[in-house]
Design goal:
By secondary structure, the protein is an alpha/beta fold. It is 25% helix and 18% strand. Strands 8-7-6-5-9-1-10-11-2-12 form a ten-stranded mixed sheet. Helix 6 packs parallel to helix 7. The chain starts with a helix and ends with a strand.
């Protein structure tokens, strides 16, 4: 009888296994988590509703935060497009690898093939890798995603305003610099899929990227994957589908935020449908702060000073949400320092893969993601901008702003896609701010805490020696590497 019972049990187990969907079997046996990085363009610190956004709703982003962890002191690698993306994907301060500012359709440079991206690192562990959205690390073949670790790519090779039209889709006068740009290409792998030739056609981008990302998850549900979803929105010119046009109280920008939120919901939905939600780590963040001179077509820095392309908090401090079921304690807030360059080494630790051979600047913050309140993996943040200008450093709750010039938004903004003028301003002597009491950087307290300024200057001198600082005439340091060239 005992042998008969054992035989029946074995047959039942075998039958159950054979009838279990393939992706369901994978879910129970797959050890390596999937990684999803949703990267928004020009969205400010104060734009998601869980960070204070008003006039529209972001229920899916808010749900992500409620089920995961929200950071309050997380920074983009630099406060502008290409540099920020380079930092996220390579774990390096962008000036270390020669990438600064934003690359253009006429640029003949891009990411150096010697650099290791997150996609290349994870492919060594058998991950499928896909990018759907804005690349902006070089549009020539050698610099495109498929040559840098990604299996699939659909999206724009650079910003959606780099076309031969105005920011409102109008024809430009003869001789305008933008007339040198080709029609805006939507790429499929290494080829142009189609071009965008009107403002109305930009309305399709958020939905296009989302549908491609959903399809990627469906097709790769039976193996570990890395999905990189860098949306073109909310960069001007703003585009939104009919699903959300006119739905918010804040106008077109609010409509765009609602469609971005819908996209987050679609990703969560397809993960759940494939039984992958419990084994997928999702990150939601942005490349830099808001482009404030575009007024009602720009986001909010949430009370922080200035915005995109500046080294003040509004330019580089960004929202960051992580959901990692079973690891990240739900509904928590982390006030520790973090930076986009920390994502690569954190993924390396979690996936148990090796770090790049070349030096990186990021450090794993996986312990923070796990809710370890005693961990403090990142002590400092370097605020580089331009070709190689060190404009400030942060250590703990203190930020030292170094002498530099910037284009301020402290003037009347534009409207409806037209940018307002910016004014040049200069920090003449070092300034010190207490980030705990003064995140808006209004009160320079350097005369009260000279010892703190001296402590942070030690960080400055070390950074200058390794990475240079054009503000003091140091073009390079000992650790700078070359950008990729044709």
């Amino acid at each position: 009888m005992k042998n008969l019972t054992s035989l029946i049990f074995a047959v039942v187990v075998l039958f159950t296994a054979s009838c279990t969907p393939k992706n369901q079997q994978t879910k129970t046996t797959q050890q390596s988590p999937n990684f999803v990085v949703i990267f928004i363009d020009d969205m400010g610190y104060g734009d998601p509703c869980c960070y204070g956004g008003t006039g529209y709703s972001t229920p899916n982003i808010d749900k992500l935060a409620a089920e995961g962890m929200r950071f309050t002191n997380f920074y983009a690698a630099q406060p502008v497009c290409s540099a920020s993306r380079a930092g996220l994907l390579t774990g390096c301060y962008p000036n270390r690898i020669g990438i600064s500012g934003a690359l253009f359709p006429y640029s003949k440079v891009g990411i150096n093939p010697d650099e290791t991206t997150i996609a290349e690192m994870l492919k060594e562990k058998g991950y499928a890798t896909g990018i759907y959205g804005k690349w902006h690390l070089g549009h020539h073949n050698a610099f495109l995603p498929l040559q840098n670790g990604f299996d699939e790519y659909v999206g724009l090779p650079y910003s959606n305003d780099m076309w031969p039209l105005s920011n409102t889709g109008q024809k430009l006068p003869e001789g305008h610099d933008r007339l040198k740009n080709p029609p805006l290409p939507v790429m499929h792998n290494n080829d142009v899929l189609f071009t965008i030739n009107s403002w109305e056609e930009q309305d399709t981008l958020t939905t296009l990227y989302t549908e491609k990302a959903v399809d990627f998850i469906n097709r790769n549900a039976n193996q570990p994957f890395f999905l990189y979803l860098p949306h073109s929105m909310a960069h001007i010119p703003l585009g939104v589908s009919d699903k959300f046009r006119g739905k918010s109280e804040q106008g077109l920008y609010g409509d765009v935020m609602m469609e971005i939120d819908w996209s987050v919901g679609q990703i969560e939905k397809v993960l759940a449908e494939n039984g992958l939600a419990e084994n997928t780590l999702i990150i939601f963040t942005t490349d830099n702060g808001p482009w404030l001179n575009f007024g009602n077509h720009a986001g909010s820095a949430g009370g922080l000073r200035e915005g995109k392309t500046t080294s003040w908090e509004g330019g580089q401090r960004v929202p960051f949400i992580i959901k990692w079921p079973g690891k990240t304690p739900a509904g928590t807030i982390c006030n520790k320092l973090g930076c986009a360059i920390d994502i690569l080494p954190s993924f390396a630790e979690i996936a148990e893969t090796s770090l790049p051979d070349l030096d990186i600047d990021g450090t794993s913050i996986a312990e923070l993601w796990k809710g370890n309140t005693t961990a403090n993996p990142r002590e400092t943040i370097l605020f580089y901008y331009g070709k190689n200008n060190l404009n400030g450093v942060r250590k703990g709750n203190w930020k030292l702003v170094l002498p530099h010039t910037w284009a301020s938004y402290n003037t009347e903004p534009g409207r409806d896609g037209n940018g307002g003028k910016r004014i040049q301003m200069t920090v003449e002597t070092p300034e010190l701010y207490n980030m705990m009491r003064d995140p808006g950087e209004q009160y320079n307290v350097i005369e009260y805490y000279p010892e703190k300024a001296a402590e942070l200057m030690q960080v400055v001198e070390k950074a200058r020696a390794e990475l240079g600082d054009l503000n003091v005439g140091m073009e390079k340091g000992s650790g700078n590497r070359d950008i990729g060239r044709l």
